[in-house]
Amino acid sequence: MKSLAELAAIREKMKDKVAIRKGLGQVRVVVGMGTCGIAAGARSVLSAFVEKVSEAGLSDKVTVTQTGCVGNCQLEPVVEVFEDGKEKVTYVKMTAEKVSEVVEQHLKGGKVVEQYTIENYKD
Amino acid sequence: MIRSHVLICGGTGCTSSGSMAVREALQKELEAKGLTEEIKIVTTGCFGLCALGPVMIVYPDGTFYSMVKPEDVAEIVEEHLLKGRPVARLEYHEKSGDHHIPTSLSETQFYKKQHRVALRNCGVINPEDINEYIAVDGYRALGKVLTEMTPDEVIQTMLDSGLRGRGGAGFPTGLKWKFASGNRGKVQKYVCCNADEGDPGAFMDRSILEGDPHAVLEAMAIAGYAIGSDQGYIYVRAEYPIAIHRLEIAIKQAHELGLLGKDIFGTGFDFDVQLRFGAGAFVCGEETALMTSIEGNRGEPRPRPPFPAVKGLFAQPTILNNVETYANIPQIILKGAQWFASMGSEKSKGTKVFALGGKITNTGLIEIPMGTSLREIIYDIGGGVPNGKKLKAVQTGGPSGGCIPASLIDTPVDYESLAAIGSIIGSGGMIVMDEDNCMVDIAKFFLEFTVDESCGKCTACRVGTRRLLELLDKVISGNGELEDLDKMEQLAMYIKTNSLCGLGQTAPNPVLSTLKYFRDEYIAHIVDKKCPAHVCKKLVRYKIVEDKCRGCTKCARNCPVNAISGAVKQVHTIDQQKCIKCGACMSGCAFKAIVKE
Predict the structure, then answer these.
(1) CATH T-level topology, domain B439-528
(2) Which residues of B touch A13 (CB under 8 A)?
(3) How far is CA B256 from CA A1, B7, B130, B135, B354, in A?
(4) Does some domain include residue A8?
(5) Smallest Cα–Cα separation from B293: which of B339, B235, B380, B239?
(6) Location of each CATH 3.10.20.600 domain in chain B
(7) CATH 1.20.1440.230 spans which residues of chain B?
């Protein structure tokens, strides 16, 4: 170790990797991982969220977790976004591609991606 | 991409209850389910709740599982890690009135009142990965002292913080460093770490070494800079294999990153650490004996002065601090002396780790601000005495300490308050006793320990403790006389004042403190020839209650020495001459017809 900058670089790189152990963040993204969700592809949605949240540098603020079936099996993969003091947002029929938009616009930009929410879902 | 961390305790407690088998099963299950890219297993140091091991925590949700078995793992993976539904039957439940609520670790009563400074990384980071230590500000304190502070400023910070030695004596750490700070760069000096933790029931140093070894290395390097030393030694007992293993890894990793070795942070400061293993002698926890042992000689103490700061290891100026003392230091450097001094009581600053054991619900490791009352420790954090028994006493300080009676339970725990009532904080062992413990027997237990461990160099300790034990034995076997109590007190004072080192000087404390607070129990042994707690075998009699005995003959069959006679369906009797007081009759009786008196 030749300088403090070197130490700081390791610290920055590692911080994200242990941030998960601080517990739940201020924003919680919950992916439905019941049998129905998994069959509809929830695993790749979950992975995409974890990846994109980290890439966007939101690991401190956003926690990605999973839950069981929420009852809308035909709309899986279902993703719910909880934020303290705000209404829950429910996204349905999620895909890895849609995840990028949700992370960029909603989690980072603070603007709900209306066309993917359950309210705007049409068969 | 990792989305979840599963922390499994790899401390000695959980390892012996099988946490490594759980880890292995989890690894296999994750591989089978193809989850190894998403879920990371982290082996950590001790979480503190050793009685509930193996302990596991799943993040980010923080679900706290206790007593996990390998066969539970498949369910945890399938239900929790895959589908996000915590397995309720394995979650730790805290009793709250009639309700059992699943509780995350930080929300338990056991944790709420704790304040973790020395233990802050134990159970949080992987001790075998230096990068995780760096992620939680590791080695930043060393960087700070090397680049921003003069050695004298470091010592001043230690003085201002009020940190005192956590090994037992409570000597101010900053003062110790100051005494050794002269002639920097002109003479060879040494920084030693005392990890020869030997008190029965104490395991805080082991947990720190196992859970956060880098904190100790970092602090030793800081101490090296402060006094002008480039060489450190950790004297750790060979009976701590996991601690040694992790220290070896930590030293190697610190070398690879250049955080130990030559020219650290490009400042020209060199520091290295070597390990020395203790072979199990209790006396080697005494500072002069420890240094003699590092030198390669038989571990025996020598008179002080000269103190180690003047003439220590290899006859050079040396500082010697305890593991827990070191674990506080990086935090003091980063957060400042005022932050540390704001915790604790007037003369005892900061926090202290205690190993809670004996008759207590939550056996384990706790860290609390100095000055917390014994009542809070035992009832709020420890969960009280189990099985509805009554608290009788708390033993603190191990073989050098004393027994505090239940009537003094509101005493704040700090150096001065405990000394005032005849005990000490010591290294931090805290053994809780209930009405089934005989205090004379407890005194004998600790005295037997010191008799065994006396190195034999000085007569007061070698012969004195043995004679004292003989007097205790006389009381316990029912042959004591009242004047023996005065003899014991006289002899105890003689041993205290004439012994060469701390071992002998404190060895009579368990006898003195029980004589002070539980003299009536001694008198019961001597005058009534009875042991009130029914512990001392020679004074206990097993008796059959006539109107409860149905004559089932079970006790007669259970008795290994044929001391019980009686016909079928007739009341049985015990021949006291033959009885060896093993208790087999009593534990086997279905009618509770056998009593001890």
Answers:
(1) de novo design (two linked rop proteins) (1.20.1440)
(2) 131
(3) 9, 26, 10, 17, 34
(4) no
(5) B235
(6) 351-434
(7) 439-528
Percent of chain B with pLDDT over 90: 87
Provide the CATH number for the domain around residue A91: 3.40.30.10
Å between A99 CA and nearest CA of chain B: 15
User: Bridge partners of B276?
Assistant: B235
Total domains, chain A? 1
B135 and A46: CB-CB below 8 Å? Answer: no
Tokens representing A34 are 């019941």
Cα B587–B563–B570 angle (5° rounding)?
80
**A81-101: per-residue pLDDT in tens?**
998 888 899 999 999 999 999
User: Exposed, middle or buried: residue A69 (CB in 10 Å: 0-12, 13-18, 19+)?
Assistant: middle
Subunit contact A1:B3, Cβ cutoff 8 A:
no
State the pLDDT confidence band at A15, using cuts at 50, 70 and 90: confident
Q: Please check whether residue B70 is in contact with residue B8, taking contact to mean a CB–CB distance below 8 angstroms.
A: no
Angle at CA of residue B528, ends B522 and B530, nearest 5°:
70
May I ask the CATH architecture of the domain B351-434?
Roll (3.10)
Angle, helix B439-453 to helix B509-517, in steps of 10 degrees: 170
Structure tokens at A30: 């919950």
CA distances in angstroms from B33 to A38, B78, B87, B90, listed in the order given: 13, 8, 18, 21
Superfamily of domain B130-341 in CATH is NADH-ubiquinone oxidoreductase 51kDa subunit (3.40.50.11540)
Quickly state the pLDDT bin for B100 (edges 50, 70, 90): low
pTM of the entire structure? 0.90
